[in-house]
Amino acid sequence: MRCHARGMTRAALIPIAFALCWTPTGATSQATAALDPCTLITKAEVEAATKMTVAAGVKSQVANLAICEFADPKAPATKIATLNVLVGAKPADAKGAFDLAKSNAASVEAVAGVGDQAYWDKYLRILRATKGRYQIDLTVDSSAGGLDAAKTIVTKAASRLPTS
């Protein structure tokens, strides 16, 4: 698959490309449809972690990728935090997507204590983690607190993922 998107790096496109190219089973696509990523983290929790005011989370979905975006209420095109949750049929699916993204990352800093495995890409400002059959990506705006804010948000989101 060839992707051409202005302003997006190859590593940023990986979760989207994986979601579009991977054909989920009926059970996985139903699980993704049932997963509301905006219930995994609240507006107040994003504001506390980033020390910024954000608008309520806006949910969207592409194949087996559930997305919740928290925008700047004064400049809605500016996303303060974007939570992506890739739903796999089994843990190996999440691990495969994670490993692919990691191998293409510009910067990899291992992060302990977040999900099953995690890393921070300081150039893309993405904290990527797996937990069971889920891959969680959190992208934070350059003024939104960096790794510490991302760890707080992803740790809370991962703790609220369904266990099945």
Largest sheet, strands/sense/barrel: 7 strands, antiparallel
Question: Which topology does CATH recognise?
Answer: Protein Transport Mog1p, Chain A
CATH superfamily: Mog1/PsbP, alpha/beta/alpha sandwich
Write the CATH architecture name.
3-Layer(aba) Sandwich
Give the C-alpha Rg: 14 Å
- CATH class descriptor: Alpha Beta
Strand coverage percent:
25-35%
If you had to describe this structure to a student in words, what would you say it looks like?
The chain has helices spanning 10-21, 26-34, 43-50, 91-104, 146-159, and strands at residues 58-62, 65-72, 75-87, 109-110, 117-121, 126-131, 134-140. With 164 residues, it is α+β, with helices and mostly antiparallel strands. A seven-stranded antiparallel β-sheet has the order 1-2-3-7-6-5-4, with helices on both faces. A hairpin with a 2-residue loop joins strand 2 and strand 3 (75-87). Helix 1 packs antiparallel against helix 4 and helix 3 (43-50) runs antiparallel to helix 5 (146-159). The protein is globular, with a radius of gyration of 14 Å. Mean pLDDT is 85; it is low at 1-14 and 16-24.
